[in-house]
Every structure is written in C-alpha cells, then in structure tokens.
Amino acid sequence: MMYHFHHFTIQIGFIVIMAVLNIGLTTVSDAMAKMEENADTAYVQFVHASPDPEVAEADIYISDESGFFFDPSGSEPFISDFTYQDVTEFKEIPADHENIIITGAGSDEKVYWQELSFFTGNEYVVIPFGELSETDEFDDPHIGTIEAMAEGVEEDELHLDVFHSVVDAPEEMDIVIWNDARTSLTEYFDISYGSGSEVYFSFDEDSYTYYLYESGTVDEEEALQKYGFVVDAEEHGGQTAVAVATGYFAGSEDEGLPGPELMFAFSDGDRIIWDEPVTGVDEEITPDIPTEIALKQNYPNPFNPTTLITYDLPENAHVRLAVFDLLGREVAVLVDETMRAGTHNLKFDAAGLASGVYVYQLRVGDRTINKRMTYMK
Predict the structure, then answer these.
(1) Residues 57-83: pLDDT tens digits?
(2) What does CATH list as the number for 294-375?
C-alpha cells in the first residue's frame, strides 16, 4: 500500500492517470497516427452538478462565439432537457476554445456561460456546479473540467476522479476512502470547491466508505459527511468514473434545498447516487510511508500536453523537482519546497514547450535522480 499526499493519492497497485491518446500505443509512430486520426476533435462528458433551480432542467449549447454575444434562439442545443444529476456519454466536440452556454430547458435566456479549452484527441468531464444564476463567469468560474479517459482501463480497475461541488461546504475539503476491511486507504487533500483530483482505483473488494472532511481536519475532527458505497467490478470495471459530492449540507434540514449526495458518474453514461449518509465510529487513519527516495517514470509517456510524475519521500524533506531540455536549460520548476513524507503525484503541463525529449530531475538533500520523458504534440 502506498500513501499519496496533497495533489496525489494512495495507491494499492494503482497506476496514475494517463491521457487516452497513449493507451495501448507502443510506438511514437502509433501515437502520431492516433493524433492525426483525432485531428481537431475532443471528447466531452457532461455531469450536471448544479442544484440551482433555474437550471434544474437545462439546455447546453457549444459555440466558438463568445457566450456574451451568442443567441440561443434558432440554435439547436448540444444537450436538451439536461436535469440535475444527469450524466451523458462522451460526445465529440471541436478541439479548441469553446464557449459553454447554459439556459433553462426550452428557454432562450442565458443563465451562465464560460469559455473552456479542449486539446485535440483528449477526453474531458465537464461539470456545471453551484448556483449558476448567481455567478459571474469572469469573477467565479462555475464549470469545472477533469481530463479523463473513457477507454483502456483494465477490467478489474476503475479510474476514479473526485470533484467537490457541495455549495455550502468549506472551500477546501479532504476526501478519504476506506475499504470495509480497513486495509486500503485513498486520500485526496485540499480539494478546492469546483475542482477535483485523479487516481487509479483498483478493486480489491466491493464495499467502501467515502468521507468528507474540512481541509486539514482528518486527524482532528469527525467527518462532515460519509457515505457507504458499493462498486461492482463486473458492471463498472474498465471505466472512468467521477465521484461528485453535490447539493447542500444545509439541505438535510431545509426542505427547500437538495441535501448532500454522493454521485458516481461513469464513462458509459451510467450513474449511481448515494443519498443516505452512514453513521459509525471513525477509526484512526494511519498511512504507510515509503522506505526510500524514488522517482517514478512519468505516465503517460509519450504525452500531450499533460503527464503525471510520482516521487516517494521516506521523511519530510526539501524537494526540488525541475524539468530540463536536452541542452540542460531549465524549462520548469514543479516543486521547490519542504514536502511531507509520502508518495507525491503531480501533473506537468508542457503546453507552450516544443515537442521533444525532456529530463525531469528530483533533488532531495545530496540525492539527485533524473528520468526522461517525451512530449509529442
């Protein structure tokens, strides 16, 4: 069992998230052929996580025209009659900067819009959340995206992302998942409202408990909410899912608000909603700590434009993780601070760099480890 801290995950035979372009591709030429095949196209799945009554039923439009100027009248919605907690399958859209415009179902009146960027061939889960009618796009974006993949996950695995959209919850949450035997632990630290984190989640049994904590209180306070859930490997193995915490904590006491619920949105468009929190005693959470400093191979590799880099720390230490080109020029510094002991997992975005081979270097004390990775647009 491996323990992953902030922006990283616990891994029990887990592997880190990879972009769909590189799944099952064994050569650079294979990857290039796949990219040409998917030219100018991206893939999106929509998950409706906004409890705003004005968009309880909504129409979704996609346009390269600014949402400010876009006129829904006379245009066909990309998705019609999209209700709260609905989930779509993955759909093709143009790859580039696109505006997502949301109206009430059958209405020409725009409630909210936001511009998003989609890279060719990649897959994204797009999540409208929060009180959209009370939100200003420029001050407070309320459509979240998670880069995902809908294919290539092993049959006994679930690629599980988490997303925080409980309206009246603390701004940052820690999310903890225990299996019922209390032998495996997955933690996501400091998940901001309207954002998420990624992990490969392997099945080792069917039943788990999902805990929501205010950030920084896992070892000190009881969970704000917890849900028991069952994952059926036979039914949902080999898929991507997003675990979305929705609604309002106050909704449990106020009949006018939807209460907090845990929704799993699967890549095939299926969903499961758990709306009954569980009760019980919280056992102490004790992580496993790595025994030595290690730098893992990035994944995916080759990549475009993002990849994940994982490193292990057996004790708290100052870490410098940087990226260099083959001429030895430093092109990015990913970490330069004291980090806690554990297995750390972070995303490197090479957008803006030239295609080619790069070296990523981990320095901890007098120990230096180098590895190579290939960025291919």
Answers:
(1) 999 999 998 888 999 998 999 999 999
(2) 2.60.40.1930
